[in-house]
Amino acid sequence: MTAIIESRSRTPHRTQRTYSRWASLVVLCAGTLMTVLDGNIVTVAMPAIQSDLGFSASGLAWVVNAYLIAFGGLLLLAGRLGDLVGRKRMFTAGLAVFTAASVLCGVATGQGVLIAARALQGVGGAMTSAVVLGMLVALFPDPREQARAIAVFSAVGAGGASLGTFLGGALTEVLNWHWIFLINLPIGIVALLAASRVLAPDSGEGLGRGADYPGATLVTGALMLTVYVIVGAGDRDLTVTLLLAALAVALFVAFTVRQARTARPLLRLRLFRSRVLSGANAVQILMIATMYGFQFIAALYLQRVLGYGELATGTAFLPAPVVIGALMLGLSARTIGRFGAYRVLLAGLVLIVAGMALLSRAPVDGRYVTDVLPSLLLLGAGFAAAMPALTGLAMSGAREEDAGLASGLFNTTQVVGGSLGLAVLSVLAASRTEGLVDGGAGRLAAMAEGYQLAFGVGTGIAVVALGLAAGILRTPSQER
Q1: Taking Cα atoms as reference points, which of 288, 226, 272, 203 lies closest to residue 69?
Q2: Cα separation values, 256 from 171, 251, 271, 403, Å
Q3: Which of 34, 191, 279, 404 can pair with 134 through a Cys bridge, CB separation 3.0 to 4.6 Å?
Q4: pTM, to two decimals
Q5: Cα radius of gyration rounded to whole Å, the chain
């Protein structure tokens, strides 16, 4: 991580007192926690939302899709605007938008209002998330402190994802689904007040430097269309899906051509000259596809095959955030400091492969303690090792002036990976289940086999991620 340390050694944040920098980290983590929780808290509450608002099966998917499309499509633009207007301004504005949108979701009594409010949440989430990593690495230029800060940040993100499943089940069962959104109001207010007092101001480069708005239109349209194609692939004709995918590719090509020719590009293509940065983002797409798909399919397995209720399903996932938090906060930074990010990443991916492989044999008469819990522990430990190492590697390839953009890019590949994993694994599971039912198999046994197939494919994706990381990210500096 030498490059990132040297490039930030002259930043104003270097002179901040230690407690101020760690207080800033708490604020950044609080903002991140809101967006991460919201990405998962809805999953367990979906049946209750469908029943209350009368959603059809296809319409219900838009409660998730509206958020993902807005969030994934705007991350790059939000990251660049953060570099121009100041990352603190972008972060606090995003908190305000996200909090207000959460209230709108919580009071929604109609389908259209809820979907529109979810899209607005995605806008606020993109504004907040796009600049967080850039702010974090600028706050902690020292390698040891930076490793600790990234471990804390990653623990909040990873643990928050599993915690969201538990909170979604608990709030829906004890109160009602409206509270899965309204819970963001007190968190958002406190985070906004703390951000205004704790985060150091930064002026940015100024809007006069330009954000390449035509380029922003092209890439935002391309990203939104890509996420739309992925998350809706199972609900439309194959020909339509291929045409939309071709249009998304054409928009990406047009964007790339513009970035190569314009004087003030939105995305400086020199970022991709860094093999480490490009490779880390590619590995992340595959790793997050595995983890996000696992979480969704495992929740379905617990509910539909093992017969768990909403609260029980959420509780069943709790060991994962406990393991993730304990390992990231207690061992991650020290381990990376001793063995290097490259080795720690590979070890983490090996554990993820092992956890997914165990799940691929989850039987119709499975037991939580023997058939689910061991995989949860392996996957939690693997993610706890891999995510901080991968984050450090990705951000190490960015210059100071590109930190916001690199942060937005890293978050964008997370969304693309999550959407890809959810779409591919859920479609495979559903197709396998329906094929077996049509052939005369019992519904319960067919669902179990469908989920086994999804977990098996997820194992294969994790193996590809491991091979890619081993081949692309191996450099002398990363092996130290």
Answers
A1: 226
A2: 45, 9, 13, 20
A3: 404
A4: 0.71
A5: 21
Report the percentage of the chain scoring pLDDT > 70: 80
Distances (CA, A) of 372 to 55, 291, 368: 31, 14, 5
Tokens representing residue 16 in the block: 């901040």
Contact 328, 158 (CB under 8 A): yes
Are residues 168 and 45 in contact, defined by beta-carbon separation less than 8 angstroms? yes
Task: Taking residues 37-63, report their average pLDDT.
Answer: 72
Instruction: Quote the distance between the C-alpha of residue 23 and its chain's center.
Output: 23
Q: 277-335 pLDDT, tens per residue? A: 788 888 989 998 898 888 778 888 888 888 887 678 778 887 887 787 777 766 666 77
Distance CA 71, CA 64 (A): 11
Distance CA 416, CA 396 (A): 21
Pair 122, 220: CB distance under 8 Å: no
pLDDT digits (tens, 9 = 90+) for 160-217: 666 676 777 677 777 877 888 888 888 888 888 888 887 777 765 555 555 677 877 8
What's the rounded Cα separation, in Å, for the pair 375 and 369? 10
Q: Does domain 2-211+266-479 have CATH number 1.20.1250.20?
A: yes
Query: CB atoms < 10 A from the CB of 207, how many?
Result: 10
Report pLDDT digits (tens) over 113-157: 888 998 899 888 888 877 777 777 777 777 677 777 777 777 777
DSSP string, 87-134: HHHHHHHHHHHHHHHHHHHHH--SHHHHHHHHHHHHHHHHHHHHHHHH
Q: Where are the domains of the chain?
A: 2-211+266-479, 212-265
pLDDT at 480: 45
Alpha carbon separation from 434 to 56, 438, 446, 451, 457 (Å, rounded): 19, 6, 7, 12, 18
* pLDDT at 410 > cutoff 80: no
Residue with tokens 């643990």: 159
Angle between helices 373-396 and 403-438 (to 10 degrees): 150
Whether 351 contacts 379, CB under 8 Å: yes
Instruction: Give, in degrees to the nearest 5, the angle at Cα 465 between 464 and 469.
Output: 115
The segment with the largest mean pLDDT, out of 25-29, 157-161, 444-448, is 444-448
